[in-house]
Amino acid sequence: MGRLTEFFSRRKVFEPFGHVVSGRLAEFRLLKLTRAVAKDALVLEGIRIPDPDEDGRREIDMVIATSDRLLIVEQKHWSGSFDIQDDGRFLQTRKNGSTLLHKDIIDWTARKGKILVDLHFSRCGSHNLEPEVVLVFSNKNLEWSQLPENSNAEAYDEMGFINMIESMDLTKPDEKLSETLLGFGTWDAIHLNGGRTIHGDILEYPFDKVDSEITHSGIFGLLLGPKSTLSTGEVVNDQSGPLVAVVGEDSPRIIPFANISKIEFSNPRAEWG
């Protein structure tokens, strides 16, 4: 790749997708509101737990742990409306009339809660908490009815959820449970020039895995060769980059440093995580 082509490759802008921005902002808002009222409860977002029955990891949107309760929270920022089918799947009807059939999110969330509790039991030998499935439909433009009475879950809109949290006994959880929960990792995050964020697992990285902001050489890069400088001090070739298994993609790929503005790594996973 010539210097001119390399120079312009770093000027490529990756704007965030509208629906992704909306959903992510809703997640940030719910997390912020929850933590504001949670007192001594442990509130974690986006933890990923190993699945012993299938390859890979399962992400939990939010976990809230107290001395006597363990909430497994699944947040949906759907619009339109939905109906629950006989087999438990959720049929969403969007504002434009199109439909989207989702999996049984109650059963799926309950399964993740069971995996988490089983991992904690295998580590500590005992526990006295049953995971509770909580669905949060955070989009005000969603029309929905309460879940069936025989459903093994509770469902709320955003403020209904916050009010429910405030009504709980928000004392801190058992120390061993806290340790288990804090031992799970999250996604690595690659922030691209222009505002788009990619989540996944960074499989290969040429330096110590420390969060870093990246700056790119200016017009002088045409003379000296385009380079990128990490805030950790390393100077790298623009077209080199981390190998990333991106969420939703079948194969890992290299993301050039030329396209990256910031890299954030997941917290280190403990042995059980």
Brief characterization of the structure:
This protein is α+β, with helices and mostly antiparallel strands and 273 residues long. Helices cover 25% and strands 32% of the residues. A hairpin with a 6-residue loop joins strand 15 (243-246) and strand 16 (253-254).
Verbal overview:
The chain is α+β, with helices and mostly antiparallel strands and about 270 residues long. It is about 25% helix and about 30% strand. It folds into two domains: about 80 residues, no CATH class; about 160 residues, Trna Endonuclease, Chain: A, domain 1, CATH 3.40.1350. The protein contains six helices and 17 strands. The strands form three sheets. It has an eight-stranded antiparallel beta sheet with strand order 14-13-12-17-10-11-15-16, with no helix packed on it. The longest helix is centred in the N-terminal third of the chain and has 20 residues. The two termini are about 40 Å apart.
What topology does this entry show?
Layout: H1 3-9, H2 18-37, E1 42-50, E2 57-65, E3 70-76, E4 80-84, E5 90-93, E6 99-102, H3 105-124, E7 131-137, E8 142-143, E9 154-157, H4 158-167, H5 175-182, E10 188-192, E11 197-204, E12 212-216, H6 221-224, E13 227-230, E14 235-237, E15 243-246, E16 253-254, E17 260-264
Parallel strand pairs: 3-7, 4-8, 7-9
Antiparallel strand pairs: 1-2, 2-3, 4-5, 5-6, 10-11, 10-17, 11-15, 12-13, 12-17, 13-14, 15-16
Helix pairs in contact: 2-4, 3-5
